[in-house]
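Hello forum,

I keep getting stuck at the same step: I have a sequence, I want structure tokens, and every attempt I make locally crashes halfway through. Rather than fight my setup again tonight, could one of you with a working pipeline run this one for me? It's a single chain of 157 residues.
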Amino acid sequence: MVLGRVYVSFAVLVTIGLIVLAIVLSIIWVVAGPSLSTDIISPLYLFSLFCFICLPILLYGLGYLYAKGHRYIITNHRIIMFRKFIGILIRSVACDKITDIIVSQGPFGRIFNYGGISPMTAGITMPFGLAILSLSGVRNPYEVRDAIAKLLALPEA
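Reply #2:
Ran it on my machine without issues. Output:
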């Protein structure tokens, strides 16, 4: 089974960040508006132009490339995470070492049906909820967890 990362998981974060930026810039425009020069080349005008034209194109474009650079390969012998963005990261875990499979889904993940899957091995502790190998942004995470459990012959949770 070969899986990829869902783009919506990154796009949701970028959209929320751009909305917060728009609110902050609107407050600055309202508060500092009367004292600003009406010149079209004012620094705040140029910064706003950058934030609402260049920044979304850059963030959504990089986010798309980042999401498309993820591949998760699941076999009956191992689970492999392959990530290629600026550098290349390959992680794998042997199936006979997996003791548990954790599925995590935030509120947007529940709305858009994506989540993270973390196969746990013996002796691994999760500091701050981070796992050594995590399949992030996977569509239908509970179905994928059931498919992995079936491949590994683990009891379903």
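The first strand starts at residue 2 and ends at 4. If your local run keeps crashing, start a new thread with the error log.
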